[in-house]
Amino acid sequence: MPGSTGVDTLAPMSVGTRTHALRDLVQTGLGDGDRYQRWVLLTALAGMFATTFPVTLLAVSLSTIADDFDTTETLIAWVISAPLLGSAVALPILGKLGDLYGHRRVFLSGFVVSTVVTASTVFAWDPYSLIAFRSLAVIVGAATIPSSMALINSVHAPHERAQAMGWGSLVAAGSPAIGLVIGGPLIDAVGWRPMFAIQAVLSVVPVAAAFLVLRETTRRTDVGFDVTGALTLAVGTSGLMFALNQAPSRGVDATIAAAVALGLAGLAAFAFVESRVAFPLLPLEFFRRRNFTASMLAALFSGAAYMGGFVLAPLLLQSVFALSVSATSLVMLLRPASFAITSPIGGSVATRRGERPVAMFGSATIAVALVLLGLAGTWDVLWLIAIGLVLQGVGNGTAQPTITATMSNSVAEADLGIAAAAQRMAFQVGSALGISMLTSIYGGTEQAADFLTAYLVGAAIAAAALVFSSMMRSTPQDQPTPSTAGSHSSSRSVIASSLRPSR
Which listed site, 188, 219, 328, 341, has its alpha carbon 20 to 30 Å from 233? Predict the structure, then answer.
């Protein structure tokens, strides 16, 4: 009929319209309460699982990959080292981008690009293409780490964040362990390439969930992005990370000295820029807050102690106790298992008792664990290693969620992304420092006495983490629950004002 609009109303909806309608339906059903909070946590945990799944599996596959490409394990080791260096540089930049443009947007973008690159890794044709694919996937995927933490923190009250971070630590520890148990036989059967295909498939779940479930966080429309600060921080961090990563194998040569000098100059320039720029990447004012500085230093030293001991343990089992690679892998599962079990427990206790005592307990437990691991080799007692590995997992499982929560609670909601990124960067820099220091002290002599010396140094580093953990202040139990999307701006000033006096 003339003038009728029946044809228009009956026209099928486009795919984009249908997907947006589905998203609106899902988000309406979730509401703004506990149900939405749980789904945000589950979405972030699914992302963490997909991201961390291949970590240990890749480490035990290096020899297989090197043989496949007919190259050295030294070169293939850059499959792990290069992404570590790149993500440490990228983390604070990507965290800030989430604060500026929304963490849902950054989380989704990072996962989509990372998934595509991860799938492409299956087709790597030489070691250099494998290193490039893996590095790009991890660097882009690093956007999901601070964004997932910020998304979780944005829907939890400050005193609840330690418990939420505990669940995150459970997944971060459990996923590599599951990958090792499931993926090991798979690699033996069909090779290493399907590992990346599996990771790409696993990544589809958090991508779909993020699109349907997540609401955008508050965007900082009042500030700009600090390009100069990002560049100087990248130069400083990459220089020092390269030196820490390469010094054990190269020694202190001209290249290492130049990298250290470049790193220190970059960080000095970064501090100079941040003190004068209108909208800093990482406001130096944060370091005047007791909880921010104490938790950052605690993360640095606990990462050094934990990861340094992490690398030494399989060397101790194989060189002193003559265990096979498969037997070593089974024993090493004790650490991620205890880590995964205790992380949510530690977070729950911190919610009731405060973050400070739980973080102190975790740091002290790591110190005791490293002493026991060192004595195990000297006394030739294998079961003492098992106790040490369990205690090391318990220590890190209780320390890390509480340290992360403390740092997050030291800033306003609008800065959650950069705070999460700073904590993660501190842990990674500490990890590189600890690995470099303890392996250098051990020196590859395969002597129990040298293991003992290295482990005692690691225990001293954990004691430093204990000192800085003792300087933290627990979050009051009456902190308000952050509002979900749509009311962030109104709650931001409340949260900010409630946080500042306790620093």
Answer: 219
